[in-house]
Amino acid sequence: MSAGIDASAVALDDGRRCFTFSELNDEAGLLAQRLRSEGCRVVATLMDNSPAWVIADRAALQTGLVHVPLPVFFTPEQIGHALSVAGVDAVLAPPAIAARWPQMPVAECMVAGQSLVMLHLPARPVAMPAGTAKITFTSGTTGSPKGVCLSGAAMQQVAHSLVQAMAPLDIRRHLCALPFAVLLENIAGVMAPLLKGATCITLPLQDLGLNGSSSFDAARFHEAVVAQQPHSLIVLPQMLRAWAGYLAQSGQRAPASLRLVAVGGAAVGVKLIHGARALGIPAYEGYGLSEGASVQTLNLPGSDRPGTAGRALPHAQLRIASDGEIEVTGSLFGGYLGSDATVPAWWPTGDLGRIDQDGFLHINGRKKHLLITAFGRNVSPEWVETALRSENAIAQAVVFGDAQPALSAVLWPLRPEASDAALQASVDAANAALPDYARVQRWARARAAFSVEAGTATANGRPQRAAVLQLHADALGMTASSSTDPEFS
Questions:
Q1: pLDDT digits (tens, 9 = 90+) for 269-280
Q2: What is the reported pTM?
Q3: What share of the chain is helix, strand, coil (3-state, %, to 5)?
Q4: End-to-end Cα distance, the chain
Q5: Cβ-based neighbour number of residue 344 at 10 Å
Q6: What are phi and psi of 460, to 5 degrees?
């Protein structure tokens, strides 16, 4: 426990029971002792948001074990891949999930009043960078997600930086609105608030309207936010878009308790930021990456420029390479699992951008996604997609057009009942703000919302471009090989 934190203050609140910092440390100590006695080296968690997850994370760090947080929405193939390549020898999971491995030896494990099962796997030791404390698996572009190895020092550095940058806001209650296995919530939504001595509200994700990786009930989410009265929370752009749409449609406003709603994972767009704020949502965009232990930049009250990703946080340094690629340093990972490549002092993010004279980061899209039209014009699809998603009817958009005379898009409406005419009106409005070479001339309604389960999105909502094109090539009059756009990683 950090100095100055009241041991009797509430650290975790799951809506049914509260745990003080003293109880949190006691529970973590008990689990750490159990993990040591079982001879564990690499422990995976596969469970919903709960106090037990937070305690397992803290226990692994205290014990010097490697923690591998796995999202419950990963496919069985992705989970199997992660367990194997990380050399996981123990899995903590609820009995219903543990039943997927009926042949493995199990032991009951009670953590924070929650009945869990500890499965012991016949794992072989795996080489990984020295000091690895956590392996976070990117949601990936394939069935074999990539393991990013992070040290405890790098994660603590980011958490301390967030506490320092957000000190004027005096955040005392943070509602955890993303899965804990998502690194952004793990560090910015758990480690940082607890480091400050704030309360983490750890409701089951279903209570927040989240089901799987991409099904989101904005009405239920708003009900939970109103009931919990948090000071802060973190959302993905599509969650913010749906929440703002629900408030506008229902004539409601976000609760006045909110001081910061951080938005990350993908480009947000200035129109959505302003629209959300008009409804009482204090939305502020940030930028980060797993290889930098999550958040690198963030807009904040008093240091804010909508349409940018904010200024560098105290721990981070950014620069722009000669080709326009954003490079970062300050809290870098140790390396990728299974790779012996040396991590450079400045990490090339794969994102294109610029830093303005006031230090705000402007992101122009992915370096590898740059489209070159048949007329030789360079277009970042993310630029056009952000413009499309800024319109009222469109929730998700993926733009294609490499070597094509004009751009095409696959669209998913904010409300399933939205008509084609409403979608066309939104496309027309977005086109009006774009130059002629970046306008969408043809579009198709998506056959389903983009999701991890369908293989068409990553965990943070970024599109799997090749998969989206494969499903809609006929509707766009293209072939699946018409676009060379790689997918988001």
A1: 898 999 999 999
A2: 0.83
A3: 30, 25, 40
A4: 35
A5: 10
A6: -95, 15
Burial of residue 3 (CB within 10 Å: 0-12, 13-18, 19+) is exposed
d(CA 447, CA 392): 19
User: In the block, which residue shows the tokens 């009931």?
Assistant: 227
Other C-beta atoms within 10 Å of 322: how many?
A: 5
Q: How confident is the model at residue 345 (pLDDT cuts 50, 70, 90)?
A: very high
Q: How far is the C-alpha of 72 from the C-alpha of 143, rounded, in Å?
A: 15
Does residue 199 contact residue 54 with C-beta atoms inside 8 Å?
no
Q: Is 320 helix (H, G, I), strand (E, B) or coil?
A: strand
List CB contacts of 223: < 8 A, sequence separation 6 or more: none
> How far is residue 197 from each of residues 59, 194, 293, 352, measured CA to CA in Å?
18, 5, 21, 37
Distance of alpha carbon 452 from alpha carbon 147, whole angstroms: 17
SS3 (DSSP) at 288: strand
R_g (Cα) of the chain, nearest Å: 22
Query: Dihedrals φ, ψ of 248, to 5°?
Result: -65, -40
